[in-house]
Specification:
- With 224 residues, the protein is α/β, with parallel strands linked by helices.
- It is built from 7 helices and 9 strands, in the order βααββαβααββββαβα.
- Strands 3-9-8-4-7-6-5 form a 7-stranded mixed beta sheet, sandwiched between helices.
- 42% of the residues are buried.
- The model has no long low-confidence stretch (mean pLDDT 88).
Amino acid sequence: LPQGAQRPRICHVPEFSTSAGAEAVEVARLAGLVLDEWQQFVLFNALGERADGKWAAQTVGLAVARQNGKDSILEALELLCLFVLGVPLINHTAHQQKTATSHFKRLLRLIEGVPEFDRRVLKAPRGKGNEAIELRGGQEIFFATRAGGGGRGLTADLQLYNEAMYLSEQDRASLAPTMAARSMTGNIQTWYVGSAVDELDPAQDGVPFAQVRESGIAQKNGVA
């Protein structure tokens, strides 16, 4: 490894043939987002593709300490899926509205910084709780808080659970039917991203996040 390179203490990656990770890094760089080596490592391994072109990891779990660059990974992923892969619908959920709104604003600034990307935006409503970006080609990304059922009813191709340490089983169950319907015909991927669950904090349910971690440790197929 290069001197100073960081690698996760626990890491499982399903076998894959190719990866869209390099494209994610490049599209982020084009938008002015330069990723650290460890962030590139995450994207390269999480975006591995099987021989049939579908994701090797249908489920991705990323546990990193607070304020260490998790959101930049999600921003690079979202830019890739919107502008390169043409993913029809992305659902980005967070525990708090301010987190979802902040991510929406950062992603929109990255897009507006690239004229080619900005021209492809049809609309980007900014009303609190209604933030979204829709491209002229029909691709959409929605930003919602899980409180009050945000994101339910969306048949997303890419489901992102930010602040996953606050994700309850009830929250995940409410979104599971829409993801199941999409998985029958599409190429879906679900990301759980957050910091380690604090068992002393009653607000941090975190059971689904812990289950993803356990599946990775057990080297379950389709989990990274």
